[in-house]
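As a next step, the fold was encoded as tokens, giving this record:
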Amino acid sequence: MPGPGLTVGQALIGVALGAEMQPSTLRAVAADWLGVSVVTLGTLLVSLAVGLLVARRGRVNRATGALGLVAGGASGIVAMADELGADGRLVAFMQYLRVLVVVIVAPVVAFALLEGDRSSASQLDSSGAGVVGDLAFTAGCALAGVLIARRLKMTAGSLLFPLVLTAVFAGSGLLGEPAVPTAVQNVAFVLIGWQVGLRFTAATIREAQALLPWVLTAIVTLILACAGLALLLVPLAHVTFADAYLATSPGGLYAVLAASVAINANTTFVVSVQVFRIFVMMLVAPPLIRIIVRSERARRPSASPPPGGPSAVADLVEEA
């Protein structure tokens, strides 16, 4: 895939994610900042832990394992995977498998166990600036973000700088509540999907198949851990377990939103926590992954025995 196509896809996804940081989201997060911060940090740590475990057991590099299980922003994570030293194909496989499992599990749990008891649910306000205004906002933030990224030469900057720039404008409320038109988002998803899909081979499919049991185990562990964080969020944010469970569900934003509306949950709180977590994951995960990759590389030379030494063959076998 031509390089400019990937840059455009990354920038548009960054703008789409940043546009979710509306004033209503910031107000809801600020009202319960302690609980939201605790569960967001907890989810990040659990995601990295299970990802590193998958990397160890599934014999993939640490960047691939960690990025593959980051809970939130699947499209953005996949878009930046190659730049962070991960295998974008396997990251895509793990990320979208996580989304699939969560999309199936969250509504089932919500309807079966967590039916709300409110007479009315809090709804998100939306007031767009019109298609022309949204297109201008999207193009402006994407272009400015890419230019800044090229100037600063930061890893995954083509996604992160448009994201931050858009979030500043969206969160300030100065431009109303701009959004990225659905058709534009679809173009971005096609570009990223094209970039990832073209790199799949028969060998990749076999490797993904070998990873499947470990990835499924990690996803189940992640879901259970987030349910545990939901129990912690209940007293901190003074919400029901239904609200907390949906707010901490590791991904599947649109399925979670639909479930929260259907069971009459606090939709504003649920979506605000989900969006805030995605934003934090997209900003914090890349530098953490770089630290993990550097530490992995730093250990290899120091741990290497002299060429031809007794343990050299064992190391080669283990590496194979």
Notes: The chain is about 75% helix and 0% strand. The chain has a mean pLDDT of 81.
